[in-house]
């Protein structure tokens, strides 16, 4: 499939940008104040992230302006819009850990499965409230009739791994406290089915799904039951380029430069992409009590070869794992709202992906 003109323009723009050696930055969007930062750029992922001397990280979107809306935050709304309400919660005051909760509009008596979501971004960018996630996870909540809890993960390079994995694990433990009535949330306490809890994550969030599932495999989560794990296009790779990395087309959601730089910034210091977090292929898990998996892959993903290695390894170790393949699309295609709107195949594959996730949830 040839990319649409707008997407081609986007890819060309990203590859034609070059870092500046000196820069004056205007920022602090959270508090709507302005401060000036000067210094040498020591690393940059074009359009997404710039790292300066002294450790300051600027995540202001600098790519084509027509794509900026996808990274804009969506405020929570406690009333139902298109059948879904949202709320932001502080779940750990000590670590300042927050989550976003999506509640679908369903009959009062119905108990709902719970999805704990870990966002992607190479461990370095994105937030749970970005429009690209809001656009898809409202659909998943509505069509799966499931409550979605999306964790605001700490980001690298300020917080290298395993920080984001610890945040994901802490979210699961907090949900156990809700199930045990040690803490209360009006939506989850009244509507959540704690016997049907799923982990779901996009891209690097898929890595976190697998790590959290392994972490709790030998633990007693009662009264929670981990009913399934859904890694979507997980960032499984290794130091040596795979055949798909060399041959598949780069996309707006993943380039080789993004893959290399984000993982270099995100992994523990001194680690390579052969670290178990990013290279679990062939890792023995036969003795772990893992839940059923739905591994979602995209035919044109740069890293589909290593994702498929993971799939074969899980099957070899006797784990229950299903495969959902999206044809003619690349990494995290369903997060690209513009592609969904302009490309019929992206729209159709997004619909099939959401249906496949809903089916997996309904049957576990």
Description:
With about 375 residues, the protein is α/β, with parallel strands linked by helices. The chain has 2 domains: about 70 residues, no CATH class; about 280 residues, Rossmann fold, CATH 3.40.50. It is built from 10 helices and 12 strands. Helix 2 packs across helix 10 and helix 3 crosses helix 5. The two termini are about 35 Å apart. The N terminus is likely disordered.
Q: How many helical stretches?
A: 10
Structural class: alpha/beta
Query: Looking at this structure, what is the CATH superfamily of the largest domain?
Result: Alpha/Beta hydrolase fold, catalytic domain
Low-confidence stretches: 1-36
CATH class of the largest domain: Alpha Beta
Helix content: 25-40%
Tell how many strands the DSSP assignment holds. 12
Strand content: 15-25%
Shape field: globular
Mean pLDDT: 90
Can you tell me the number of structural domains? 2
Radius of gyration: 20 Å
CATH architecture of the largest domain: 3-Layer(aba) Sandwich
Say what the CATH topology of the largest domain is: Rossmann fold
Write the layout of secondary structure elements.
Elements: H1 5-16, E1 22-27, E2 35-45, E3 49-52, E4 57-58, E5 84-92, E6 97-104, E7 112-118, H2 131-144, E8 147-151, H3 163-179, H4 186-191, E9 192-202, H5 204-215, E10 226-232, H6 243-247, H7 256-266, E11 293-298, H8 304-316, E12 321-326, H9 337-342, H10 344-362
Parallel strand pairs: 7-8, 7-9, 9-10, 10-11, 11-12
Antiparallel strand pairs: 1-2, 2-3, 3-4, 5-6, 6-8
Helix pairs in contact: 2-10, 3-5
GO molecular function: hydrolase activity
Domain Alpha/beta hydrolase fold-3: 115-334
Family: Belongs to the 'GDXG' lipolytic enzyme family.
